[in-house]
Amino acid sequence: MSDRGRGVGRGRGGPPRGGGSGSRGGASRGGSEFGDSGGGRGGRGGSRGGSQYGDSGGSQYGDVRGGRGGSRGDFRGDFRGGRGSGRGDFQGGRGDFQGGRGRGGGFRGGRGGASAYSGPEVFGYGSIPQPDAEVTALENKWVQEQNSSLVGLTSQVAKLSVADGYWPFRPGFGSNGNRIILWTNYFKMDLKTPPLWKYDVVASEPKSAETKSEASGNTPPQDGPKGRKLARLIELALEKLDLPAHTVASEYKDKVISLVKLSLPEDAVIKVEYLDNRGRAHDWNMKFNGPHPISVDPLLEYLKTMRDPQDDGSFPKFPEIIDALNVILGHSPRVDKNTAAVGQGRFFATDPDRMDETPRMPPGLLTILRGYFQSVRLATGRILLNVNVTHGIFRRPVELTDLFKQLQLNKMGPQGGPQLSQYFMQLKRLQKHLNKARIICKVPAETGPAEYVLTERTIAGLAYERDGDRRDKEKPPPQFQPGFPYAGPGNVKFLMRKPKTPEGKPEPIPPKGLKWDSPVRVSDYYYAKHGIAADLTMPLINVGSPTRPIYVLAELCRLLPQSVKAKLDPDQQDAMIQFACRPPPANAQSITSSGRELLKLDNNKLLARFGIDVAKQLITVIGRELEPPAVAYLNRNNQLSPVIPSDGGWLMKGIKVVRSGAAIRTWTFLYLSGFRDRDEYGIVKKTVGDFADFMADSGININRQATPASGIRSTTQDRELTAAFKELASLKEKPQLVFVILPDKSTPIYNMVKKLGDVDFGIQTVCVVRQKFLQSKGQLGYFANVFLKVNLKFGGINHKLRDDNNLIRPGKTMMVGYDVTHPTNLGPGMGLNAPSIVGLVASVDRDLGHWPGVAWNNDAGQEELGSELISKFQGRLEMWEKHNNGALPDNIIIFRDGVSEGQFKMVIDREVSYIRRACELKYGGARKPRMTVIVSVKRHQTRFYPTDPGHIHHRSKSPKEGTVVDRGVTNVRYWDFFLQAHASLQGTARPAHYTVLIDEIFRAQYGPNAANALEELTHDMCYLYGRATKAVSICPPAYYADLVCTRARIHKNELFDDAESISSADRIKYLERKVHPSLEDSMYYI
Questions:
Q1: Centroid of chain to Cα 82
Q2: Is residue 861 over pLDDT 50?
Q3: Which one has a higher pLDDT value, 755 or 452?
Q4: Which of 877, 940, 856, 873 has its CA nearest to residue 911?
Q5: Three-state DSSP state, 712
């Protein structure tokens, strides 16, 4: 995806301030690495359909750097022990740890949310500045000069191969629609940056490195440093260089940008000493490779004309300079101890005074914070800083005792037994989600009772019966009370060793009532040593390691806000949406006030030394509002009847579908009733009959009578549900369609139904929720939404454009969409067995109504497709051939969804080559189809805000549907545009971003008007999404491809759950699942 962060981020305490690691003799500091990294794409939490929720992030959630370290302390307590294992689902559900509908106390309220908006309708500074006239003039001049040689360029394109890396020049700017002025979330940057020096930093341990602390003679781990540890190492190395103030910047992962050449030893290695959380010292070598000189002068010269004499097809331009600027701009918020950095460009305030937290999150471990994203972008004639509101999932800052009480996990006591088995299962799930959590720990001080030293630690888990290295005879594992796999302070003992006595020193005296070299109960130790009466109902916390735990009382620990990867349950998703949905004026105001403050864009000495100035005002750009196309249905006389959309949508009244799919002769229903009574079953039968009549009256060729008429009844248990489908498949006439009445919105039940129908038995299924299906209020609207899916699954066309697009009308253009989704953001221990999944769809008719799809596995985290694309694309051509009397398309327009700008060349060089090879194999001879390849991206950070109250959506205050922007924030050398086709009902609308990588169709057919033609076609297609009566936010080929990926993940859902529960044999079985042959030529995924 575009605008993804890459590097590390930091959190509370700052790249460098973190828990207990650092140089000797001072407060410790640390850093951390985040999962927001360039290659992969975030997993998707559901379909994109329905209302668009605006700035809810779509975010990637990585780790976060920790906070300020305190004293090393000597509070190890000798509570040694070992690894705790355990599996379990920790996602979703009422009363779960993440905060389903659990009970418990409240939390500190946050700012914002989805309450009724009462602010200004548009954002503004009092007067609205016009778009930069110099930029507009440069854009116009460039296009005019380009169009003068258009004929020559067109002939040039025909001679170029994909290997030449040709990028189509922008043929012109669009002119259709009503011209408007829009704010956009960019600040202009002024650069007077002197020459820079870049160093690539690599950390390594000396071969003979050993810990210097007498606490252990073991060699340190050999894994390469990362995250907080790596950040601290880089900071220690920079401190040793004794540099002038404000002359160096880093992202604390592998890059250092400096205004001066660093005074390095001959081998360019800086030796540093790092203290781990247990106070052990380790030597590290920090190698500074370089310097690599960086000058911004070539970039500034390029901006004057936007012409690159060498124009080698590289994209994006000047990546090294842009990357250096991002490092410099991100440095100041990254080193703020009260700011958490996630990835390269997302920052969140974590101190109580500034932390912007949702007040609506259900009680539990997680919360949602509002922060800010920033990224340097190259536009026509200028450098811009893109700043946007963003949202992230964080561990909630809370006292652990409060958390345990809210989750009803304060049940430890003197007696174990079967009555606590469920409690211990809950603790097992919780442990997985507390692992690696950062906490502030109150260490009892030696200076007196009731005095504490605050230090940051990392939770290794809860006190667990497998703790302890049983091979270590010197430090035996702790002794757990029988029946307690997890322990409180009264359920576990440790061997309290007598400390070694230095020569000439008196013998140490054990705490009152205790004996050296004997087992001591943890609660007794705390009381005797520190006068603390432990809460025996609370689980113990391990802040050491699995094999050498350090146990502390829960009442001494407080969770720090820390970014996490987690899969939200429905209640949490609702809280996220409500918090994230804010109208454009509110987001713009935040960006220009608290956003600038958090990002430290003003009065910043570092930026001043680097010659960077960020303008205080957002820029404005030229936009246009396109007219919506008229759509058409059949009226009751079976004649085409136009419907004019309003506010991006329309109503279906007194009309029928354009074309029914295949006749549905045999169908029935499956009622997942649980333990509901027989009277309701009778209501279900009647409602199903009413629905069948509704579909038949709406033009669907369906038998009005179910077979069997009484349907089938089952519980929601997997075994009984499978038996029900077996019964359906064994009927004399196997049903073509089964309506499944679900008891509620249960994701596991829905997944099971789709797996059985799509994969195992080859039966089309449509799921409805019992309450919505049966209630009379709004029932016809619900019927309408559901029957649209039915018609699509059987090859029908629900609606079409009244005025066919002249490129599509002849029926010789095939539309294609493909996408890759990755197993990311699934929560601890989940998705480790899962592949990435590719979804490919293609149209088969001139009305763009039917889009069969196919899915297959890709290597996990791999965006680039392999040679399997050849055969899969051949399959789409054969599908077109089948539906078009043996003819192949003359034109192929491809929408590649979701790749970042850095991957554009990969698409051209690799994926398009595979597609062309598929065409060669299928077409044969000299005939080749014309091809246009467009990347469509929804997960980017560009937003537009209205300047005129007369040009806003009345509910969300976002720009009106049909808003297109192709200048001001684009690069005139390339052909891209932003299109907000949909009406945003709440929040700030997110436009889709389209970039043309290859074009053999539009420029050749439309000449200088090619931009209008492509924008109009893309806009019109957004009104052809088959299962909705509204324009959608991204064109259907990309949308449908995403749905194919989503359905394939459902088919293999075990791979995306707890990794520890899957054997190798099962993994192979799940990977090989595919759609039943009887459904391959259908939109089964709708």
A1: 34
A2: yes
A3: 755
A4: 873
A5: strand
| CA-to-CA dists, residue 81 to 218, 466, 477, 542, angstroms | 16, 8, 5, 9
**Is residue 551 a contact partner of residue 522, using CB atoms and an 8 Å limit?**
yes
Cα(162)–Cα(56) distance, integer angstroms: 37
Q: Which residues pair with 963 in a beta bridge?
A: 625, 980
With 0-12 / 13-18 / 19 or more C-beta atoms within 10 angstroms meaning exposed / middle / buried, residue 504 is: exposed
Burial 767-781 (b: 16+ CB within 10 A, else e): bbebebbbeeeebee
| Cis omega (within 30 of 0) for bond into 561 | no
The 3-state secondary structure of 1005-1023 reads HHHHHHHHHHHHHHHHHCC
Structure tokens at 507: 């013998």
On whether the CB atoms of residues 154 and 994 are closer than 8 A, the answer is: no
Q: What's the pLDDT band for 150 if we cut at 50, 70, 90?
A: low
Q: Helix, strand, or coil here: 370?
A: strand
Contact between 480 and 412 under an 8 Å Cβ cutoff? The reply is no
Provide the pLDDT for residue 149: 66
Q: Answer whether 994's CB lies under 8 Å from 1018's CB.
A: yes
Euclidean distance between CA atoms 1031 and 1022, whole angstroms: 5
| Structure tokens given for 662 | 């295949």
For residue 340, the one-letter residue type is A
**Phi, psi at residue 333, to the nearest 5°?**
-65, -25
- Let me know: does 1046 contact 844? Beta carbons within 8 Å: no
Which among 856, 934, 863 is positioned nearest to 894, based on CA atoms?
Answer: 934
Q: What is the dihedral of CA 914, 916, 920, 921, to 10 degrees?
A: 30
pTM: 0.85
Q: Which of 139, 554, 567, 186 is nearest to 386 (CA)?
A: 186
In this structure, are residues 135 and 968 in contact, taking their beta carbons and an 8 Å threshold? yes
Residue 439, pLDDT > 60, answer yes
Other beta carbons within 10 angstroms of residue 701's beta carbon come to 17
- Residue 939's φ and ψ, nearest 5 degrees, are -90, 75
Peptide bond into 889 cis (omega under 30): no
Instruction: Give the residue-averaged pLDDT of 160-185.
Output: 81
- CA angle, 381 as apex, 377 and 382 as ends, to 5°? 40
Q: Is residue 393 predicted with pLDDT exceeding 90?
A: yes
The answer to whether residue 52 scores a pLDDT higher than 70 is: no
Neighbours of 269 (CB within 10 A): 17
Name the β-bridge partners of 202. Answer: 287
Q: How far apart are CA 570 and CA 924, in angstroms?
A: 51
Give pLDDT, residue 676: 54
Neighbouring-strand partners of residue 739: 669, 766
Give CA–CA dist 621/615, Å, rounded: 16
**212: pLDDT confidence band, cut at 50, 70 and 90?**
very low
The enclosing H or E element of 698 equals none
C-alpha 589, offset from chain centre: 25
Amino acid at 722: T
Whether the Cβ atoms of residue 63 and residue 256 lie closer than 8 Å to each other: no
537 to each of 117, 282, 413, 705, how far by Cα in Å? 45, 39, 5, 61
Q: Are 1011 and 139 contacting, i.e. CB atoms less than 8 angstroms apart? A: no
The angle formed by the CA atoms of residues 99, 102 and 105, to the nearest 5 degrees, is 90
Among 435, 451, 427, 410, residue whose Cα is nearest residue 534: 410
